[in-house]
Specification:
The chain has 87 residues and is α+β, with helices and mostly antiparallel strands. The chain has helices spanning 13-18, 28-32, 61-66; strands spanning 4-10, 20-22, 37-42, 45-50, 56-58, 72-78, 81-86. It has one domain: Beta Barrel (At1g16640 B3 domain), CATH 2.40.330.10.
């Protein structure tokens, strides 16, 4: 089964200050599969992010620092694999 989902947004100020991101509730079932964790690939690194009931998660410091100076954040789900990138 092929599922393609692309979430593109401006980088929120909470990401640059605290490393926190909110995932839209409508996309959570697709990205998490009903669990409280989400597996995401960032470059060559695989991250497992814990998500609370409001869709909030905290990115590791090295990933959050990559977002500084960029304007957009993209989460893409393709063939069951989620990727995170900054543009």
């Amino acid at each position: 089964m092929k599922i393609l989902l692309r979430l593109e947004s401006e980088i929120p100020p909470t990401l640059t200050k605290y490393g926190k991101v909110r995932i839209p509730p409508a996309a959570l079932p697709l990205l998490t599969g009903g669990r409280r964790t989400m597996s995401v690939r960032f470059g060559e690194e695989r991250l497992v992010l814990k998500i609370d009931r409001y869709g909030r998660t905290t990115l590791p410091a090295n990933v959050a620092s990559e977002g500084r100076g960029k304007s957009r954040m993209v989460i893409e789900l393709r063939n069951g694999e989620a990727t995170l990138e900054f543009q």
